Fold this protein.
Amino acid sequence: MAPIHERIKDDLILKERQLWTALTSADPAHAVNKLCGPSANFVFPNQDIVALSPEEDEHADKQNEKKLGRILAPPFHRFDDFSLTEVRPLVIDLMAGTLTYRVSAYRDQTVYNATGSTTWAQGSDGEWKIVVHQETLV
């Protein structure tokens, strides 16, 4: 069995790939929302910071999904493929970690090159959830 930090790094890389698969899909809001912690923040290039509402009532999850739906509506990040390189997982503790990387995404002749960073926290249910996701165009 791999040491715990290696398993955490592998989990973070897997979750980041799930995030980018969702972000580059035709309708990403629901899948991205499922990956988010209750107060996740997103920092996308040339946009205001997107801060999700903490789950204070039974409608917060639907409100967050609607908010993400507006922000992530096409043509936002609609790509056919992506690749993550220079992936560097950093274990903060047994229940938190950050991934930094370069991302290249493609659609027809459009290329999106950025650096990215996502901080993840593990809940009591064992699921990794986004705390903060940030992208910077290069």
Q: What stands out?
A: The CA atoms of residues 55 and 61 lie 7 Å apart. The beta strands are 36-43, 50-51, 81-93, 96-107, 110-122, 128-137. The mean pLDDT is 90.
